[in-house]
């Protein structure tokens, strides 16, 4: 016969945040453990691709992580992907060149 399980925590409703997992102990008993929600990979702010090199975690766990797990060593690391950073840098450079060309044309 299957061993019955009782929820030992104060919150007994079966919600997404209160998920229970059956675990068999070394003494061959089944007990219920609370399972935390899985984290998601952070996404790029502009193109919404997954950011590689950054760990998956829930927001509270993410804030407690070490800095080298939260970012990559690049400008906008952990916020934008490398392609978007490249486009941003090239766009800023081209804007500066355009301004210089306009100023140079007016002086002559």
Automatic annotation (TrEMBL):
It comes from the Eukaryota. Pfam families: Ribosomal_L34e. Coiled coil: none annotated. Keywords: Ribonucleoprotein, Ribosomal protein. One of its GO terms (cellular component) is ribosome. One of its GO terms (biological process) is translation. One of its GO terms (molecular function) is structural constituent of ribosome. HAMAP family: Ribosomal_eL34 (MF_00349). Belongs to the eukaryotic ribosomal protein eL34 family. This is 60s ribosomal protein L34. It comes from Trachipleistophora hominis.
């Amino acid at each position: 016969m299957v061993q019955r399980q009782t929820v030992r925590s104060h919150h007994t409703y079966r919600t997404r945040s209160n998920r229970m997992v059956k675990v068999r102990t070394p003494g061959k008993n089944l007990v219920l453990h609370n399972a935390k929600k899985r984290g998601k990979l952070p996404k790029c702010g502009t193109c919404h691709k997954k950011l590689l090199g950054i760990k998956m975690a829930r927001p509270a766990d993410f804030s407690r992580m070490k800095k080298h797990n939260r970012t990559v060593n690049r400008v906008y690391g952990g916020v934008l992907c490398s392609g978007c950073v490249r486009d941003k840098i090239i766009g800023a450079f081209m804007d500066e060149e355009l301004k210089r060309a306009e100023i140079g044309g007016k002086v002559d």
